[in-house]
Amino acid sequence: MKKWTLLCWFVTAGGLASCDWGGGDGDELISPNIRTLQAYEKEMVFANTKFALDLFHQLEKAGLENSFYSPYSIHQALAMTMNGNEGQVLEEFIDLLRFEGMSIEEANKAAEELTQFLLAVDPKVNIAIANAIWYKEGYQVHPPFKEAAEKHYHAAVDPLDMSNPQSVDIINNWIENKTQGIIRDMLDFIPGNAVMYLVNAIYFKGDWKYQFPANKTAKEPFFVTPDQQIEVDMMQLEKAAAFRYYSDGELQYIEIPYSTGQYNMGILTGFDHNLDARLESFSFENLENWRATASEANFILKMPKFKMKHKMKNMKDDLKEMGLVSPFEYHPENFTRLFSNPTDALKISRVIHDAFIEVDEKGTEAAAATIVEILETTSIPSTPTVITLDKPFVFFIQENHSGALLFMGKLANPAVLN
Fold first, then answer.
1. 304: helix, coil or strand?
2. Pick from 352, 284, 332, 356: which is nearest to 78 by CA?
């Protein structure tokens, strides 16, 4: 199936601009909580969006027909993790997360305040973003790292008995609770040398500004290729509504608003079936241009009703290809600001991501979670030398300090012993 790309920008800057969407069903009476973003918050929006597009193009290399994930969740989990590093390893995180030109303090403060803005901007949208950190019981978290996690990411930083099998349930239950029961049993096991789990969870539920009547949904063809079609539940608006729209003749960009219009679902699609070629122009600069150039257009929208779940069991290879290399290998410079107590070399073992989305006539429900798993190197015990006393031998009992021999003997034939 040629890739059908639906990009949900509810966790990036896609819905941050105040727009006159027109139409609606009374939502114009609800005032969104708009405020001027600080310069460092705008920089965080740029960083989030650039990372999201970098990640999109990286994951596209796998050739999956369908995919869904939360770049905001992944970005936030890795930003939290970044604070445990310094030097060259820290620079790798900064480059990956697109924090160029920002200090660590500015990045952390921006992450906090932008998240708070997203949580409060639209009273009609149910959105939750939460972070948590569990570390190996008996270890001491470095105070500045703990302070940054608690202050800027509002993360509870708690000890956990990693050797207890029930500890998996503690992390999974937290994720399930924060995603309204959608993301379940995400973590499969805790390795014996695990020392920390950094977790982000995000939940979104928003009703369309212009809802699709259920009685208008009907089976219609969806053209995978010009020669291959499948039947889908195609939703349709009752009448024309106002959308922000842009087209360059080859590619269409549409913003489908939720509730007050502060959040929207961005759509990119082509006029032909060569979407892969069109997506080569999917860059930060072009996205900004499409958003700015889009104008209000009135039309009846039809779109598929769908549900999708996508789990990435380990994003290690993709993140390494994007430039985050050292943290995935045992290295003495990894996570030097994570623990106060001495540790063996540390590394990220897994970055797990699980996401779900359901789009129907009423709106969209989506959830995702990201787990960063950090391990400590373990010394593999060498195989001990084996000496077998399988032939006659002399033995004696001696006093160590003086060397005096107290007893002596010889064993040559155990079969004739009394």
1. strand
2. 352
Q: 408 - beta bridge partners?
A: 396
Tens digits of residue pLDDT in 335-391: 999 999 989 999 999 999 999 989 899 999 999 999 999 999 875 444 455 665 666
- In three-state secondary structure terms, 380 is coil
Considering only CA atoms, which of 139, 70, 79 is closest in space to residue 105? 79
Tell me how far CA of residue 91 lies from CA of 94, 95, 149, 201, 336, in angstroms.
5, 6, 19, 25, 14
Radius of gyration from C-alpha coordinates of the chain: 29
For 168-187, b/e burial (b = at least 16 CB within 10 A) is bebbbebbbebbeebbeebb
In tens, the pLDDT along 93-124 reads 999 999 998 999 999 999 999 999 999 989 99
Domains and CATH numbers, the chain: 6-208+305-376 (3.30.497.10)
Give the angle subtended at the CA of 308 by the CAs of 304 and 311, to the nearest 5°. Answer: 155
132 and 79 Cβ atoms separated by less than 8 Å: no
Q: Which two tokens stand for residue 11?
A: 């966790």
* Residue 107: CA count within 13 A, CB half-sphere: 24
Tell the burial category of 418 from Cβ atoms under 10 Å away from its Cβ (0-12, 13-18, 19+).
Answer: exposed
Burial (0-12, 13-18, 19+ Cβ within 10 Å), 108:
buried
Give the pair of three-digit tokens for residue 314. Answer: 């380990």
CB 155, CB 149: distance < 8 Å: yes
Instruction: Calculate the alpha carbon distances from 139 to 55, 136, 161 in Å.
Output: 33, 6, 11
Q: Is the dihedral of CA 125, 315, 4, 222 positive or negative?
A: negative
Residue type for 186, please?
M
Cα–Cα distance for residue pair 399/118, rounded to 1 Å: 77
Q: Give the pLDDT confidence of 149-185 residue by residue, as tens digits.
A: 999 999 999 999 999 999 999 999 999 999 999 999 9
Helix/strand number for the chain, H first, E second: 9, 16
**Helix (H, G, I), strand (E, B), or coil: what is residue 128?**
strand
Provide the pLDDT for residue 281.
87
Percent of the chain with pLDDT over 90: 64
